[in-house]
Amino acid sequence: MNHPMHRVHRFEIVGPYTVAVEFNDGTEQRINFRSVLEGALFGPLQDLSLFNAVTLDPEAGTLAWPNGADFDPATLHDWPAVSSELAARARVWAAEAKTAAQAG
Fold this sequence. Notes:
The chain has one domain: 2-Layer Sandwich (NE0471 N-terminal domain-like). It contains four helices and five strands, in the order E-E-E-H-H-E-E-H-H. It has helices at residues 39-42, 48-51, 73-77, 79-103; strands at residues 8-15, 18-23, 28-32, 55-57, 62-64. The strands form two sheets. A three-stranded antiparallel β-sheet has the order 1-2-3. Strand 4 (55-57) and strand 5 form a beta hairpin. The model has no long low-confidence stretch (mean pLDDT 94).
């Protein structure tokens, strides 16, 4: 079975936590990441200065941040179909972090 290999071609920060992304197939997504910025990897990106340090990883063809956070380019390409599930996971990560902080 042949699956398309999506790669980010270029991007632009267009607002707080929001990036316009263009892919190698000519499609575009405007992604607001705010609802998924929880947990050990993505939580630090709530700091807008860190979020805005995003770069294009030319080898992986995706967005990458200095703390090692990134998203699979297929996830970015299909954001409308997957964003609700990712936001639900982020809520779980936030609840786990809150529970750990209360216990610690």
